[in-house]
Write a structure and sequence with these properties.
This protein is an alpha/beta fold. It has seven helices and eleven strands. It binds cytidine-5'-triphosphate and the ligand C[C@](O)(CO)[C@H](O)COP(=O)(O)O. Cytidine-5'-triphosphate (CTP) binds next to helix 3. Its EC number is 2.7.7.60.
């Protein structure tokens, strides 16, 4: 079986959350969001190697939080970059192995399930990639330069989530690219390098905590789980 790695990217500042503390450190259910996320991967497997990417200046803050919450999960902490692409690349550089599987997951998606993580690794092992997604529930319109808009066929689209899981050999190759403005996730980087992307079923519960209302939704979700 190939070695399995997870890069949890938490190197952002959370500007859309509108608070000074990075949103990945905000508590939900009495525990920082990032600790929930890390625990989900540990529940999936005690063997998976977890790398956590943080803003360099926030590493002492994270260490203090770990002491405060007596959080002792073994993870390798790595300084992030200015963009998500750079943060992923910094994490990837720490994985010395040539072969294996790597899942990249947003630190602010704490509702990922062990089943979804497993599905990602199993699919990527077979096909090279596995990118979680969900169908759209709302109607979609394409806005034109003149301000008018056109209905589009929503069945042709998917909303993309993480985890996004890849065979290391192709992922490392893809991340040799120079950064492009349209790299919004790892799938766009891997596709740019010419590799096909396999989609897998994600979950509507697997939300990315981005704006203040997501915090309230997350608190409610935790209450319903616990
Ligand atoms: N330089 C960056 C930017 C983002 N991320 C991570 O990528 C994930 C998804 O990004 P997003 O939700 O946009 O987080 P932020 O960049 O922190 O938020 P914002 O765009 O509101 O500032 C987050 O876990 C974030 O910490 C990262 O590791 N390094
Ligand atoms: C990676 C991602 O979560 C997939 O949906 C998304 O692209 C991150 O976007 P953001 O603008 O960095 O939040």
């Amino acid at each position: 079986m190939r070695n399995r790695y997870v890069i949890i990217v938490a190197g952002g500042s959370g500007s859309r959350m509108g608070v000074t503390m990075p949103k990945q450190f905000l508590p939900i259910g009495g525990l920082p969001i990032l600790m929930h996320t890390i625990r989900r991967f540990r529940v999936y497997s005690s063997a998976v190697q977890i790398l956590v990417v943080l803003p360099a200046e926030q590493i002492p803050v994270w260490e203090a939080l770990c002491r405060q919450y007596q959080f002792e999960e073994p993870v390798l902490v790595i300084p992030g970059g200015k963009t998500r692409f750079q943060s992923v690349r910094n994490g990837l550089e720490q994985i010395r192995a040539a072969d294996g599987l790597v899942a990249v997951h947003d630190g602010v998606r704490p509702f990922v399930t062990p089943e979804l993580i497993r599905s990602g690794f199993e699919t990527a092992d077979r096909t090279g990639s596995a990118v979680a997604c969900v169908p759209l529930k709302d109607s979609v319109r394409l806005v034109q330069p003149d301000g008018s808009s056109l209905a589009v066929d929503r069945t042709s689209y998917r909303l993309i989530q993480t985890p996004q899981t890849f065979q290391l050999i192709l992922f490392k190759d893809a991340f040799r690219a120079s950064e492009q403005s349209f790299f919004t996730d790892c799938a766009s980087v891997v596709e740019y390098a010419g590799y096909p992307i396999t989609l897998i079923d994600g979950s509507y519960d697997n939300i990315k905590i981005t704006t203040p209302e997501d915090l309230e939704i997350s608190e409610q979700k935790l209450r319903s789980i616990e």
